[in-house]
Structure formats: structure tokens, C-alpha cells
Protein: HHIP-like protein 2
Organism: Characodon lateralis
Amino acid sequence: ECSPYAAHLYDAEDPYTPVRDLPGLCFGFCSKFHNKCRHVLKYLTENQLLLDTSGRDMPTFCSIVDLSDQDYCYPNVLKSTDLNSNLGQVVEDPRGCLQICLTEVANNLRNPVLMLHSGDETHRMFIAEQIGFVWVYLRDGSRLEQPFLDISGDVLTTPWLGDERGFLGMAFHPKYRHNGRFFIYYSIQFNSKVEKIRISEMKVSRNDMNIADPYSERVILEIEEPAANHNGGQLLFGRDGYLYIFTGDGGKAGDQFGKHGNGQNK
């Protein structure tokens, strides 16, 4: 069964918690699990402490897999009215399994940073990779061979693990169906030294709705980036019709720039 709070079963929100091999099991449920199913543990984990204690000491084993917050251990996480009262209507199959599980829609991508549709009723999805590609996925889940957009030669990326620079944002004009306009946000570099973020307008090809016109780019805004991280990247059209650009605070530990830091500077 899937729950929107499933990450809590593994203490996933706390970066200081060691990676858990087993989800957090409430003590009452754990004792039943240990009594009936402990023989399957060798297939679920290689944690020798869990395996050793499960074989000789149920209370110790269950105390290890329990969670300090009893709201989030299994099965309490599915039964708590405080957590589950506002999740909307869910559907159960004949066996009682909740139909709110995740379904994979794309794979074999390199650092995908966004997925969005163009609002033109073609039922296509556009997925962007940080290195500067945007791919078109059709309604049946297949991906077109040729990318919608390839500016990988212009985008600033590095082999540094966790680098936040690159192709970071894209937004289709609210009237894209009629004007073919969209906007992109990406990192660039000048003279191998100065780093900037660039926001540009582009248009789709007149001859192929699945390919952007590579010669249509019109630079709207460039901002010098003081550091390599916290680059933001989101582009969104508001209900007011304006394009909103989220730049991040400029980076470095503690947001050191300016009198108060960019994050606090209106």
C-alpha cells in the first residue's frame, strides 16, 4: 500500500538518520510480523544486527525497527485520521489495496529537472535534462527520437557531482497553442570566468510542432551569479499573465552577499 507519508517510514526527511533497510514497524504489528514472517528477513536486508536480533530477541528487534514518532510507523501511518483526513477520495481494488501508487512514465534520463505540458491539448509531455536537452513524450509514453530543444553546447555544466548549474527552467506561454512562444532559463559562462543565468524567449518551428526553432532565441534577461549553487531555475506564469523568475539567493554557505544576503533582500 502506498501513502503520501511513505518516506517517513524510513525517516527519509532526517538526513542524519542512517539509511533504513526496513520500514518503521509499530511495535504491535512488528511482534506479529516477527512471529509469522521473520523467515523472509534474509531476503529483505543484509543488516546483520537485524538478522541476529530477529533470530533470538523479538523485543530488541522490534525496538530497532520502530520509529520514535508513532504516527508514522506502519500501519499507524495509514490509520491516523490527522494524516489521512484530507487526502481526497481514493479508490480501492477488490482486495482493498489503495490505488494511489506511483507509475513510472520515463526513464534513462540524465538529471531530469522538470516535466511539463504545453497546454495545447496535444497531450504531449516535455521533460528537460540539466545538460540542455528537452524531450517530447507522446500520450502513449513513447519518446520522440529528436529532441524538442538542444542547447547543450551553450549551457554551463560541469562534471562536479551535485552541480546546480545547467538548464534549469522552462515555461510555455499561456497562449502557446496560438503563438508558439516558450521561455527557458539556463546557466552560461563568459570568458571562462563570469557565470550568468540567462532567460530567453524561443518559438516552436513553423514546420514541426515537436521541434523548437533553434534560431528564434531572444535573450530577455541575464543576471551575474556570484556562486555556483542556489541558482533557482523555476519559471512560471501566474494567473495574472506575468512570467515569474525564481533565481535563488546566489549561493555559498550562509548567503553571504550584500548587507543582509540576497535571500532577505526585497
Remarks:
- The mean pLDDT is 87.
- The chain is about 15% helix and 20% strand.
- The longest strand covers residues 181-190.
- The radius of gyration is 24 Å.
